[in-house]
Here is the input.
Amino acid sequence: MNGAVFHGMRRIRFDSERRGEVFDQAFRYGIRVWGERERDGKTEIRCGARDAVRLSALLTERGVPYETGETEGLPALLRFCRRRPGIVLGCLLSAIWMIWSAGLVWDVRIEGSRNVADERILAYLEDEGFGIGTRFRKIDFDQMQADILAAQNELAFISVYMDGTVARVQVWEMIPGSSGKHPEGVYANVVAVEDGVIEEVRVREGMAVVKAGDVIRAGEAAVSGAVAKKDGGVRFEYAEGEVLATTVRTLTAEAPFERVEYRPTGEEKRAFFLKIFKKSVKLFENSGFDSGYCDTIDTIGKVCLFGRIPLPVWCGTIITRETAPLTVTLTREEAEAEALAGLRRMIREAAKGGELAGRQIRVTFTEDACRAEAALYVTRDIGRTVEFTVSGVPES
Amino acid sequence: MLARIPVVVVRGMREAEVFGCAGIFEYGGERVTLSLEGSLCTVTGEGLTLEDFQDGTLFVRGVIREVRFGEGDGE
Here is the structure.
């Protein structure tokens, strides 16, 4: 019967009264039959396609009326596929795609991160050449993990393993302030990155060499890694700490009375593309303007199957809008408002990471523009760790 | 050349294996008559079917009530 699947099989129907004769012929000539069924006075049996030809000839010789069905099994499947080559091609391409893509990373999932953004962890992985679309079978994961830990100081532990085609990344973050072990002979000072007046020095390691109220210049040490010992000697440490100081910064924003702006004309064209793993494929682009000034807007979204299963496929649109230059003239009030708005943006940016202690703003007008100036007083941590090496000095 | 001796093995009341069968004389749901070398073998019962032909051997399966041997030429 197994051979019949490859060569094909046929059904033969005959009157149940002639069953003895049919089975006798089949038995005498070594024709294997199976699947006997009786319905409405007719008996149906199955046999191999080649045996069906022999049995049909025997039954015809003996005058037994019968009916045969179409050949079933592999020959029927091949006949079906011959008439529909697209199905065969589609199955073949699907099989090739599945085999090829089974060695690619489809998704990266990160667990254990709290303060370190997932994008940063993905960036660390990208620096090591690992990400969506990477062929992972030849990657030395142990070496990659070691390289990532050596290249940064935000993560204390990272583990990357493959769960099918999904890369699972587990991380433990460094505790703030604990920078881990330092190489032998390497020490550090904490120096100021800009001028300021010291408000407070918080020392974790090392010795403070400034105090509240002192003026410090950029580059001067605030926390020293060379600590005097009671017996007169010096011991070296890897200084760590925060140096809170009030700094002064001058900001200027200007708004000219006349300027050229580029305004949309209303003409635009769109291009659509598909990104699969790391390859981008331009799909089509509608017609539009060919030259001139323009703005471009990119949007891209990941495709999710049934809204829940993310695929390594992205759909994107590039919208290009034509613009034309236009000369705009501002009144004094408009120019002042614009200059102050620009100055406020600069103040927000400059005060990030610190506390705004005070500011003084002045607005002046020239022949062509309005100028807004600000003196900003910000209290922030201006300390930066600077390493140095000491050799030939015995440890005490 | 030795004469072939037909052998009938009945297992329980469900299966009869017949060695040395020469042909099928009659085949019905309640009666199957097989042609053996120089005689006939009749199996009666209910729901009888013939299965697994191979080289002079076949199986009679179903509820077997009686196996009777009789004289005859066989075909």
